[in-house]
Amino acid sequence: MQVFDLMDKHGHEQVVFCYDKVSGLKSIIAIHDTTLGPALGGLRMWPYKSEEEALIDVLRLSRGMTYKNSAMGLNLGGGKAVIIGDPRRDKSEELFRAFGKFVNTLGGRYITAEDVGTSTEDMEIIRTETPYVCGLAETSGNPSPVTAFGVYRAMMAAAKEAFGSDNLAGRKVAVQGVGSVGLNLIKRLLEAGATVYAADIFPDKVQKAVELGAKAVPADRIIDQECDIFAPCALGGVINDETIPRLKAKVVCGAANNQLLEERHGKALSQRGILYAPDFIANGGGVINVAEELQPGGYRSERALAKVSKIYDILLKVFKMSREMGIETYEAANALAEERIRKALEQKRMYVPV
Fold first, then answer.
1. Phi then psi dihedrals of residue 110, to 5 deg
2. Could you tell me the pLDDT band of residue 352, with boundaries at 50, 70 and 90?
3. I want to staple 12 with a disulfide (CB 3.0 to 4.6 A). Which of 7, 167, 213, 286 is the partner?
4. How many whole angstroms separate alpha carbon 57 and alpha carbon 162?
5. Cα–Cα nearest to 36, from 74, 9, 68
6. Which residues are annotated as a binding site for NAD(+)?
7. From the candidates 80, 91, 250, 307, which is the catalytic residue?
8. Is there a contact between 277 and 158 (Cβ–Cβ < 8 Å)?
9. Does the 3-62+76-127 domain belong in CATH 1.25.40.10?
């Protein structure tokens, strides 16, 4: 495993490997780009099969955060952290305190928050060791409902582009992954009059969706579900050589990060006539919400929700760029984010007396 080659490939500034013998912590913090500001990105806890798998995931996720934060108009760079472990079995106070200590050694270059496998309660423990943490219960709280709202707004924009109307009533939506974000998205879709198909590797999560009015689908068959919109809301890499031929949707729009296993799969979707809503645009609501904690005067929910609602307009801009420039939607989203970073780098040439 050539770590520096991987960092060079993805354009990373810093990767920190963290180990604590007492708690058993095995963690990796990846800082991708701090041109726009300190790196903000969540902490994911997952039972990775290998250290290499964890490294690849944190590198991909942190790069995605750079693009997400830029596209959402935030003065923040991109970072991410992972803990190797089963969140249903391996959590402890000592584990998160140890992680917090490592975050604190970075002096604010990386600000953490919750992600898959972690919670606001975990962030509270981390907060005892470092001030560089967001998503606290007494401020912005669980970002999942706000992330889901952003995905819902993105789905409306994608429907407008694909079907000519952003009304989701009567649309069939297949949701893969019924975690906190997926369940909140399902609630909004059902309220809007959509028919929702839900799948997850954990049956108890699917049952919650069924109780709301969704239709259960086996986890290994959700890709094959006849629908208007396929919403990946679990882990990344779900859009790949094996799944693309099986999709029976006109739109892919969901909350998962890194939905395309490789960028070429965005073109493969387009060749099949499937509109792709770039993931870091669609799922930007969560980071907007936690970033509000860093604003002067502190967190204000109405301000956060107003910003998240604009994901609709950002995505329509991406679709327009895609059409006018003759490029794929993921390329247009990348261009939007990269242009803001480029301008910030140019302005850094200016000398500002302190």
1. -130, 130
2. low
3. 7
4. 31
5. 74
6. 177-182
7. 80
8. yes
9. no
Pairing of strands 14-20, 25-33: antiparallel
**CA–CA separation, 132 and 115 (whole Å):** 15
pTM score: 0.87
Q: How far is CA 223 from the centre of its chain?
A: 20
Note the pLDDT tens digit of each residue in 166-206: 999 999 999 999 999 999 999 999 999 999 999 999 999 99
CATH architecture of 144-284+312-338: 3-Layer(aba) Sandwich (3.40)
pLDDT tens column, 249-305: 999 999 998 899 999 999 999 999 999 999 999 999 999 999 999 888 888 889 999
User: What are 84's strand-pairing partners?
Assistant: 46
Q: How far is CA 93 from CA 39, 126, 219, 352, in A?
A: 25, 9, 33, 43
What are the residue ranges of CATH 3.40.50.720 in the chain?
144-284+312-338
Is 80 an active-site residue? yes
Q: pLDDT (tens digit, 9 = 90+) per residue, 119-154?
A: 999 999 999 999 999 988 888 878 889 999 999 999
> In the prediction, which pLDDT does 1 show?
67
